[in-house]
């Protein structure tokens, strides 16, 4: 009996993996395979089917006995994560989107770091790389992403990591009040901003999550992204995350949102909206920004302006022809 008790005490801390899924049955199997292939094995896996009209339940049934499957009426991504959090039985939580995948060492690496840091740190995250619909690597620009400790100001200027890239202490997620169900996107950034007022955050330089890019990504909808990004900033300002009197900082934060969304509009072939977005960004803050802190090229907005201008001009001639 004594031997069994000692073995229990030597078990590594448990991690609950929460995977919300809405209409992503065609990706769910790959996501689950990447979780079950983790080198860190003390895992609880919860799949929340958010009222999917596809065969999500059928795919999940193939993993019976290895995962917990919960079906609910459609409530949205934030509510799905919150419902999974309420069911989590472990001290640590990881949030994987159903269309993304982890490298096998993801949890082991992040758990090792969070346990090495002081208890003031409630979240550890990592960097990512992109894959296509079939899992093929997608070339991305060379990035010098911000790593190490991440502050509230860093997060207000730009989101620094994907939700599936983070490992979080469950108690700080609950203390923050869960994910905001009024947001239709950027709910993860809103959560990280609130967490940064409760605990410290650390980002590792390793790329341990494969983020899948496809036509249905939430981040590909310019109008929705802009609306929700602006809501996150307005909410944070009202809550005093950075003093409202620091007008220069807030103008830069809003300028960055318009710059980011101009690229989304450009990808949607909405060239007029892209041009308006980049002009709005420059008008909000016509001065240089710390491009290294933002992980963007030198003169990033000035460099984008001609592309958006000529794209808008070309689309105007096409529309008239």
Keywords:
321 residues, alpha/beta, Spore Coat Polysaccharide Biosynthesis Protein SpsA, Chain A, 2 domains, nine-stranded mixed sheet, 13 helices
Give a structural overview:
This protein is α/β, with parallel strands linked by helices. It folds into two domains: 217 residues, Spore Coat Polysaccharide Biosynthesis Protein SpsA, Chain A (Alpha-Beta Complex); 78 residues. It is built from 13 helices and nine strands. Strands 1, 2, 3, 4, 5, 6, 7, 8 and 9 form a nine-stranded mixed sheet that branches. Helix 9 runs antiparallel to helix 10 and helix 11 packs antiparallel against helix 13. The longest helix has 21 residues. It starts with a helix and ends with a helix.
Briefly, what is this?
The protein is α/β, with parallel strands linked by helices and 321 residues long. It contains 13 helices and nine strands.
**Count of domain modules:** 2
C-alpha geometry:
globular
The Rg value, from CA coordinates, equals 21 Å
**What is the typical, i.e. mean, pLDDT?**
93
Helix content: 40-55%
In terms of DSSP E residues, the strand content is 15-25%
Coarse structural class: alpha/beta
Would you identify the CATH architecture of the largest domain?
A: Alpha-Beta Complex
Q: Find the count of extended strands (DSSP E, 2+ residues).
A: 9
Terminal CA distance: 84 Å
By oligomeric state, this entry counts as single chain
Order of helices and strands: HEHEHEHEEHEEHEHHEHHHHH
CATH class of the largest domain reads Alpha Beta
Q: What is CATH's topology name of the largest domain?
A: Spore Coat Polysaccharide Biosynthesis Protein SpsA, Chain A
Low-pLDDT runs of 5+ residues are none
């Amino acid at each position: 009996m004594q031997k069994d008790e000692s073995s229990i005490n030597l078990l590594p801390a448990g991690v609950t993996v929460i995977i919300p899924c809405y209409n992503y049955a065609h990706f769910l199997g790959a996501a689950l395979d990447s979780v079950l292939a983790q080198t860190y094995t003390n895992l609880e896996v919860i799949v929340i089917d958010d009222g999917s009209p596809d065969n999500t339940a059928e795919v999940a049934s193939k993993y019976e006995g290895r995962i917990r499957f919960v079906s609910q009426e459609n409530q949205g991504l934030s509510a799905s994560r919150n419902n999974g959090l309420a069911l989590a039985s472990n001290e640590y939580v990881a949030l994987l989107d159903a269309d993304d995948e982890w490298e096998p060492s993801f949890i082991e690496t992040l758990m090792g770091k969070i346990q090495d840091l002081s208890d003031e740190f409630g979240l550890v995250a990592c960097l990512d790389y992109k894959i296509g619909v079939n899992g093929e690597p997608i070339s991305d620009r060379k990035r010098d992403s911000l790593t190490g400790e991440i502050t509230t100001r860093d997060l207000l200027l730009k989101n620094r990591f994907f939700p599936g890239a983070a490992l979080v202490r469950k108690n700080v997620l609950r203390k923050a009040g869960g994910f905001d169900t009024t947001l239709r996107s950027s709910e993860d950034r809103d959560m990280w901003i609130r967490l940064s007022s409760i605990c410290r955050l650390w980002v590792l330089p390793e790329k341990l999550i494969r983020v899948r890019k496809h036509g249905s990504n939430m981040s590909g909808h310019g109008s929705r992204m802009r609306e929700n990004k602006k809501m996150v900033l307005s909410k944070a300002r009202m809550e005093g995350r950075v003093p409202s009197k620091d007008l220069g900082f807030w103008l830069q934060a809003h300028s960055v949102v318009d710059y980011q969304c101009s690229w989304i509009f450009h990808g949607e072939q909405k060239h007029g909206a892209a041009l308006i977005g980049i002009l709005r960004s420059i008008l909000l803050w016509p001065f240089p920004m710390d491009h290294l802190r933002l992980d963007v090229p030198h003169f990033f907005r000035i460099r984008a302006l001609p592309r958006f201008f000529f794209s808008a001009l070309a689309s105007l001639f096409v529309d008239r022809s």
